[in-house]
Structure formats: structure tokens, C-alpha cells
Amino acid sequence: MNRDELLRLDNQLCFLLYAASRMIAGLYRPLLDKLGITYPQYLVMLVLWEHGDLSVGEIGTRLHLDSGTLTPLLKRLEKQELIQRSRSLEDERRVMIRLTDTGAAMKASAYSIPETLICNTGMSMAQYRTLKGELGKLFDQLKQVKSCAKEPGNHENL
Amino acid sequence: MNRDELLRLDNQLCFLLYAASRMIAGLYRPLLDKLGITYPQYLVMLVLWEHGDLSVGEIGTRLHLDSGTLTPLLKRLEKQELIQRSRSLEDERRVMIRLTDTGAAMKASAYSIPETLICNTGMSMAQYRTLKGELGKLFDQLKQVKSCAKEPGNHENL
DNA sequence: TAAAATAATATTGTACACAATTAATTTGGA
DNA sequence: TCCAAATTAATTGTGTACAATATTATTTTA
């Protein structure tokens, strides 16, 4: 591949990721509209349905989001009465997120979403598994790169 | 997989896409900071470097972005004097985007980016090719789904 | 144990995304 | 030809992302 080929949009893996991610989020939208939540809010709900009460930071670790993103998002979920936010008693720096009854009950309405979505993408089960495997590998590598970049003295390598 | 398994974050292909896409964008950031542009702005520059002058709509078709996103982004690129915006003379609805000399010259500084980035992800060449192939397939299928949804009378299927 | 370092969250500011609406222009019939 | 439909961008409003900073609470350490 020559220099110009390397810069062609179609040759950018990053663009495929970027575009596919947004297109998939677009497929979620009509399903999540029925629940009255956005796609990032849905990811937060998934984490809470799976793990129960978590602090803002623990949610952020799992979703790779910081408080700048999560704080306003969680306030919106609180306004919808899907979660409750409260300072931890043991450590008053932490803000604990707890599902309300409404929020916990929403899980029942969500069970059908994953399958509907895979179906709507038009992917075969084999294709789904392959892609998930490859993306999982990339994801794990990227997590390593990220944690490596955070080590002291490694800020200039990237 | 039972119902609860289906809703686990780790089982969501969409989350892998979403997280990996943002992490990759994070790897681009230090490289693009040197050029003074953001990742979506870089994608616009890629399209212009590849195709020359294009209308706002043509850029949007290639990047799957609408004028609500592109108009302010392009105004920022114009302020940096990387592009020029001007109404088409043949069709005054269209706004043509043209690279300035500075914008065209920036391509030379970008040639090294794709390889640096793949290297920084830690992916092998084989892994890169496999993932790109699988993502390409998904992308093409999603494009079909999207165009299908746009056909009259198909709004409720998704 | 008091000051310094660290940690957790919130806030501020900039830049996307995208739905919905608006405005201007072009096009295609009746 | 004239006008309704379609096309193209811009605008408005909401909701992420994320860097940088601020704030408050905890932990370390001198």
C-alpha cells in the first residue's frame, strides 16, 4: 500500500469502528426510546442491573467514562427516578448509585433488546461470534495500552 | 445463554464497538493535537485529501454525518484556514468545501499517522486484517439496514 | 498530628452527534 | 408557467465525551 492508499477512508480501521458504533447506536435508539433512555444511559443501567449498587467511579471504570460524562448523565437518570444518588456514609467522597424499584423493574422490558438488535444488524450467529472475539481481543489490548500510558514517565510514547 | 447473561455488559458487541472506538480515538488524540485538529475533523480532512472539493452533503454521505454535525465542524476548520466554504454557483443550495494550501499541505504531516496508530494498538498485521474484514462486513450490512429503513413504509420494523 | 499527597466527584468549557425545524433553492408535474 | 414537492444547509435543542480545574474528604508521612 502506498502513502495515499494508507490515508484512504476505506482503509481506516478506526473509521469502521467509529461508523459502525454510531450505526449500531442508531439501531438501539427506537428500542430505547420506548424505555425513555439513551444508549449511554442504557449501558449504565446494564451495569447496575448486573452488579447492584455501585459508586460513580466503579461505573466509570466499567464503562471507561469519567465523572465529567457520568455526573450529568446520572442526574438525568435520577430525574427520571430510575436511580438514586447518595453520598456514601463510610467515605463521603463517594457517591453511591442505587436502582429505584422503577429502575430495577425496567430490566424486564430490556431482556428482549439484545436479540432484537443482533437480528436487526443482519449478522449471522457465526459472524457475530467471530467479530465479538476479534473485538474482544482488540479491547483487551487497548486496555493494556491505556494502563501502560498511565504509568509514570510513559506520557510521550503515544 | 439465559436472560441475565444476555444483558451482561461483557456480552454486548455494541459495548465493545463503543468502547474500542473511543479508545482508538484516544490514541489518535496526541497525534492529531500536533496538527491542531480533532478526530472527526481528521476524518473530514481524509475525505478531502482523497476526493478534492466536495459539498457538505457529499462529505456527510461518506462519513455518515449530517449537517447538524458538519456545519459547525467545517466552520471550525475554516477558522483554522484549512478549508474554504462557498456556495456553489450552479446550485446555490450546495456549499462547496475546498482545501486551502495549508489544508492540502497538512496531508504530508498525516502520512505517518495510520501506521503509528496500528502500531500503538499493539495489533498484529494478521489480527488487523481479520478485524478489518469482519468490521467491513458488518459496516456493509448496516448500510443496507439503514437504506432499507429509509424506504417508504419501513419505519416500524426497527 | 498537622501538612502534604491522594482520591472521588463535580464543574467548566469545547466539540461532537443527532432529531427536529427552518430557510432557501431547485425540480417536476398539472 | 406556476406551484407543490424535493433537496440542501443551517439552526436549535438535548445529550454525550473529555480535558482541565475545583472542591471536599481521606490517607500518608514527616
Could you give a quick summary of the protein structure above?
Chain A has helices at 3-6, 13-35, 39-51, 56-63, 67-79, 101-110, 113-121, 125-150, and strands at residues 54-55, 83-87, 95-99. By secondary structure, chain A is mainly α. Chain A binds a DNA duplex (30 and 30 nucleotides) through residues 22, 25-26, 29, 38-41, 55-57, 65-73, 76, 91-95.
CATH class category name of the largest domain in chain A: Mainly Alpha
Most extensive chain contact? A-B, 65 and 64 residues
- Average of per-residue pLDDT values of chain A: 93
Order of helices and strands of chain A: HHHEHHEEHHH
Give a structural overview.
The structure is a homodimer of 158-residue chains. By secondary structure, chain A is mainly alpha-helical. The first copy, chain A, has two domains: 1-33; 37-116, Winged helix-like DNA-binding domain superfamily/Winged helix DNA-binding domain (Arc Repressor Mutant, subunit A, Orthogonal Bundle), CATH 1.10.10.10. Chain A is 67% helix and 8% strand. Chain A contains eight helices and three strands; from the N terminus they run αααβααββααα. Chain A has a three-stranded antiparallel sheet. In chain A, a hairpin with a 7-residue loop joins strand 2 and strand 3 (95-99). In chain A, helix 2 packs across helix 7 (113-121). The longest helix of chain A has 26 residues, at 125-150. Chain A is globular. The mean pLDDT of chain A is 93. Chain A binds a DNA duplex (30 and 30 nucleotides) through helix 2, helix 3 and helix 5.
